[in-house]
Hints:
Layout: H1 3-34, H2 41-68, H3 70-77, H4 79-84, H5 86-115, H6 119-139
Helix pairs in contact: 1-2, 1-6, 2-5, 3-5, 5-6
Amino acid sequence: MTSYQIFLFLHSWIRWFILVLGLVVIIKSYSGWFGNKPYLKGDNGMSAGFIGLLHLNLLIGLILYFFLSPYVQQAFSDFGAAMRDSYLRFWAVEHIAVNIIAVVVAQIGRARSKRATTDVAKHKTAAIFYTIAMVLLLSRIPWGEAERWFRGL
């Protein structure tokens, strides 16, 4: 078992927890926004958990990207050629760039939501920013490669 395989396994499986928790947080945010519900400790805790998992997976992804990924190493060996190869471009540029943007959007949403002065504003801010982040995340999952969905060790 190599470090690459271990980190890739973790990165792949944490994704599912992010997607499930993100979906729950988004649904609760829209429900709170349109239902004029109070923003509870549980809402804050789930939001913090969602952001925490995003940050953890980003850190693991960065370790893969800069130190372990053979795809990125191959792309960096001839970046011009990699940009003409859609598969290498996806892993070397698109996946990391869009996912970093998604984490930043989610983090901004969390910070703005915490600073909002009303419960509805907290829910609304979280709903908007987390939805944008989730759409970005979903756009960079390699859905066409089923073998990557439930990666094992």
